[in-house]
Specification:
heterodimer; A: mainly alpha; 7 helices; flat; B: mainly alpha; 9 helices; 73% helix
């Protein structure tokens, strides 16, 4: 098979690919035409890019776990509010209060996602930052360079600690909402001491407040 | 996530480029920017190489250098996909394409950056062989820039070095052959006629073999003495 034969076969496949790219691409006709024109000579490398969508954004493991927990909290909160309606406990957990808790949980989830994303950025790898400090300590680096590297490592450690705190607070809030839900359901059907429910609700509000806290700038990180 | 435009990312943040390729994030704009960089950067570099002879060779070389590079990529990418999978990186084809295009785009931007220096050197009277060496040096620099993206994509895990070596070997073979088919690029100023393509005589590997033997003083074919041809060569010199 000569070079000319190969070129003809390549061009024929390219024309087919260009037609498919034009039909399946989205956007204005001009954009689709441009994409098809690119597919004609470069179909082996352009067609897969033009025809297949980007992968769905990957959720980090910690963020996924937090999202699952938040979903459970919201479901249990709904059940707790339903159990409290028309009972003496309705005043302790009105729908308005549940809505606020829900908002705080969503805010916390968003913050966890943002922190996870920051920690995935190049340069925010704690192990690498630690290695860098060790390298500079062992080498002939200046004190200033070492100090900067230590500062960077500590900052990364604190971002991690902040993320972990948010995840823990969400987890603890989830346990309390679960306990509140079961207390309210029990109280509705079998009677329960209002003091017990009141205690859980007080503790729950403390956790809700802690969710919106930012890490104290002077606090030492847990794992630094 | 970095909001830098894709061309700036190619130059300044190869790690982020590699991450986007492997996580299939915003591949279309990245691939478009890379293709644009290859088309423009390689064309300008080719044009400068062609300017050694001048005239139509500027257009010829400006057309052929990007075509040779893109042709090599078209051949290499399926092989890269298979090599990566065989060595423990079952990446999607799109990721391999984007990573390779990004590497080529970065290399082309380096070629673009080195074009003015090469042009200046030609203008100052650089000889034919030195010009060929200078262009080869620019290709070498561009290759290192491309390798920067590939190595970051491969990471530090097992077989990363073997995979990188295999990628380079496959690319060198494919790019060598596509480049060989599309020669000449650098033509002596005295040449009266410049063909767009030379007749196919053997392959790239064959040429490398013959050249290495010639370097050692072993000539496989010796042309018969032609007094007319010899005097024309002397006259050109």
């Amino acid at each position: 098979m000569s070079l000319v034969d190969l070129t003809v076969i390549y061009a024929v496949v390219g024309m087919g690919c260009a037609a498919v790219v034009y039909r399946r691409s989205q956007g204005s006709p001009r954009r689709r035409l441009g994409s098809a024109a690119l597919a004609l000579p470069l179909w082996p490398i352009w067609a897969p890019i033009a025809l297949l969508p980007d992968a769905a954004p990957r959720t980090h493991v910690g963020q996924r776990r937090a999202a699952d927990r938040a979903e459970r909290i919201e479901a249990e909160l709904d059940q707790a509010v339903s159990a409290a309606i028309d009972s003496p406990f309705e005043v302790l957990l009105p729908r308005r209060a549940a809505d606020r808790i829900r908002d705080e949980v969503r805010d916390a989830l968003r913050r966890i996602g943002e922190l996870e994303a920051v920690l995935e950025e190049p340069g925010f790898d704690r192990a690498r930052a630690e290695e860098r400090v060790v390298e500079l300590s062992a080498g002939q680096a200046s004190k200033r360079a070492l100090k900067t590297a230590v500062l960077h490592r500590d900052s990364v450690a604190r971002i991690e600690a902040l993320r972990d705190r948010q995840v823990r607070a969400l987890e603890e809030l989830g346990e309390l909402v679960g306990a509140l839900r079961s207390q309210l359901v029990l109280a509705r059907y079998a009677g329960s001491s209002p003091e017990g429910v009141g205690g859980i609700i007080t503790e729950m509000w403390t956790r809700v407040e802690s969710l919106s806290e930012v890490m104290d700038a002077h606090e030492q990180p847990d794992a630094a | 996530m970095s909001t830098m435009n894709p061309v700036a990312l190619l130059l300044r943040n190869p790690r982020e480029v590699a991450r986007r390729c492997l996580e299939e994030e915003g591949l279309r704009p990245l691939a478009l920017a890379s293709l644009g960089a290859v088309a423009f950067g390689a064309a300008v570099f080719g044009g400068v190489v062609g300017s050694f002879r001048g005239g139509e060779q500027i257009v010829f070389a400006a057309t052929k250098v990007p075509v040779a590079l893109l042709g090599a990529l078209v051949i290499c990418i399926p092989a890269f996909h298979a090599i990566a999978a065989a060595l423990g990186r079952a990446w999607p084809l799109r990721s391999v394409i984007a990573l390779t295009l990004a590497a080529a785009g970065r290399a082309s931007l380096v070629l673009l950056a080195s074009a003015p220096m090469l042009w200046l050197a030609y203008d100052l009277g650089l000889g034919y062989h030195a010009s060929a060496l200078a262009a080869t040096g620019a290709y070498g620099l561009a290759g290192l820039a491309a390798l920067g993206v590939l190595i970051r994509g491969l990471g530090r895990s097992k077989h990363a070095f073997t995979t990188a070596i295999a990628f380079v070997a496959v690319f060198m073979a494919a790019a060598g052959q596509t480049g060989w088919i599309l020669r000449p690029y650098l033509v002596r100023p005295q040449s009266e006629e410049v063909p767009f393509l030379r007749e196919i005589e053997g392959g790239f590997a064959d040429a490398v073999y013959r050249s290495s033997r010639s370097t050692a003083g072993i000539y496989d074919s010796v042309q018969a003495w032609d007094p007319a041809r010899a005097s024309s060569v002397r006259a050109r010199r």
